[in-house]
Amino acid sequence: MVWLAASAIGMMIAARFSRREKTLEQLISFVSMTELEISHYSLVFSEIVEKAANEKSYDCLLFIPLCFEKIMNGTDFPKAWKESITEKLPELSKSDEKKLLSFGDVLSSCDKEGVLNVLSYYKKTFDESLFEAKEARKKYAKLCVAAGVFAGGVIFMTLI
Q1: Which residues of 27-66 are buried (b: 16+ CB within 10 A; e: fewer)?
Q2: pLDDT at 154
Q3: Who's near 159: CB < 8 A, 6+ residues apart?
Q4: What percent of the chain has a predicted confidence (pLDDT) above 90?
Q5: 147 CB-contact burial (10 Å; exposed 0-12 / middle 13-18 / buried 19+)
Q6: pTM score
Q7: Which of 30, 76, 143, 154 is deepest in the core (most CB within 10 A)?
Q8: Residue 3: pLDDT above 60?
Q9: With contact defined as beta carbons under 8 Å apart, do 2 and 155 qualify?
Q10: Are 35 and 140 in contact (CB under 8 A)?
Q11: What mean pLDDT is predicted for residues 47-74?
C-alpha cells in the first residue's frame, strides 16, 4: 500500500509537468487570439475575455472565466485580471505567474500599437517558457515516477 502511494505521488508530480506545458500552450493561443482580435476587429479587453471565457480550448486557463465575471460585476480590467490569476492560478511556475500578472498590467496601459507590440513580446516570452516546460517534462517526468516507485519500494522493504 505504501509502495503504491509513493508511486502515485511520483506520477502526480510528473503529471504537473504536463499540465504546465498544456497551460502554456493555451496561454500562447490566448495571446495569439487577443492579437488577432485587437488588430483586425479592434475589440476591447472585456470583449476578448468574454470570448475566451466561452471557448472550450482554454479549459486550463481557469482565471479567464473568473476575470470575465469580475469585469461583468464592474471591476476594471487590470484589477479583475490580477485578482483572477491570484484566485485561480493555473499550473505555472512563479516566473510564469509574474509574467502573466504583468501582462494584464501592461495591456491596459498602452494604445493599440503598443498593445500589439506587447502581445508579440509576451507571445515570445511564453513560447520560451513553453520550450523550458517541455525540456523539464522530458528531463524530470520519468525521473519523478521512477523516484516515487523507488521510494515506495524502499519504505516497503524497511517496513518488512
Answers
A1: bbbbbebbbebbeeeebebeebbbbbbeeeebebbbbbbb
A2: 66
A3: 2
A4: 49
A5: middle
A6: 0.83
A7: 30
A8: no
A9: yes
A10: no
A11: 94
